[in-house]
Design brief:
mainly alpha
Length: about 210
C-alpha cells in the first residue's frame, strides 16, 4: 500500500488533477456559504430561496445522466477545462453585479441554473480521467486520497468562509470562488493525456 501511495504521488497528471480538484472544492465550500447569504439578502424571501435551491438541483437530476453518456465520446480534459472557464465567467458576473449592487433575484435564478447545467457536464469527467491516468491497482489509493482530501478542504472552506465574508465582503469571496475555477482550468490544461473516444451510440442516451 505504501508503494502504491508513492507511485500515485509520483504521477504528475494525477497530482495536477488532485490539486485542481482540491482548489475547486475549496471554492465550492466558500460558494455554499456565501451564496446562501446572497440569495436570501437579495430575495428577502424563503420561497425564492427555495426556488433557486431547486433550480440548482434540477439539472443534476435530469441532465447529468444524459451528460454522462454524452461525454464518453468527447475529450474529457477539454470538457473539464471549458466547464471550469464557463463557471468562472458566470460566477464572475455574480461578483461584478454584487459589487455594483445590480444583482436581482432573476439574475440569480438564471445564472444559478446555467452554472448547474455546466456542473452536470463537469462532475462526471473526473472519475474517467482518473481511471485514464492511474493504473488499475492505483485507483483505490487515488480515489481514497482524493475523497478524503476533498472532505478536509471542504471543512477548512466552511470554517474560513465566515471570516472571509466578514472581513472581505460577499463580492470578494465570490471573486475568490471565480479564481478557484480559473486555477483549476489552468492546471488541468497542463495535463498531458491522450483523449480516449468510446464508441457510444446515440440511442443509449435515453
Amino acid at each position: 500500500m505504501k508503494q502504491q501511495y508513492i507511485q500515485v504521488f509520483k504521477n504528475k497528471n494525477f497530482m495536477k488533477l488532485f490539486i485542481a480538484d482540491i482548489i475547486s472544492r475549496f471554492g465550492d465550500s466558500l460558494d455554499a456559504i456565501v451564496m446562501t447569504i446572497i440569495v436570501y439578502s437579495i430575495t428577502q424571501s424563503a420561497s425564492w430561496s427555495a426556488l433557486i435551491f431547486a433550480v440548482n438541483k434540477l439539472p443534476t437530476i435530469f441532465i447529468q445522466p444524459l451528460a454522462g453518456a454524452y461525454i464518453e465520446k468527447k475529450n474529457k480534459k477539454m470538457i473539464m477545462v471549458i466547464s471550469d472557464l464557463i463557471r468562472a465567467g458566470l460566477v464572475g458576473i455574480i461578483a461584478t453585479q454584487l459589487m455594483f449592487a445590480t444583482l436581482t433575484r432573476w439574475d440569480l435564478l438564471i445564472i444559478t441554473f446555467l452554472i448547474s447545467i455546466v456542473e452536470s457536464f463537469r462532475q462526471p469527467t473526473s472519475m474517467p480521467v482518473m481511471a485514464q491516468i492511474l493504473q488499475s491497482e492505483e485507483m483505490e489509493v487515488g480515489l481514497s486520497l482524493s475523497q478524503s482530501s476533498s472532505k478536509v478542504v471542504e471543512f477548512i472552506g466552511f470554517g474560513v468562509s465566515g471570516v472571509f465574508i466578514a472581513t472581505l465582503g460577499n463580492h470578494i469571496v465570490v471573486y475568490i470562488d471565480m479564481m478557484t475555477f480559473l486555477l483549476s482550468a489552468l492546471i488541468i490544461l497542463t495535463m498531458s493525456i491522450k483523449p480516449i473516444f468510446k464508441d457510444v451510440q446515440e440511442k443509449t442516451y435515453f
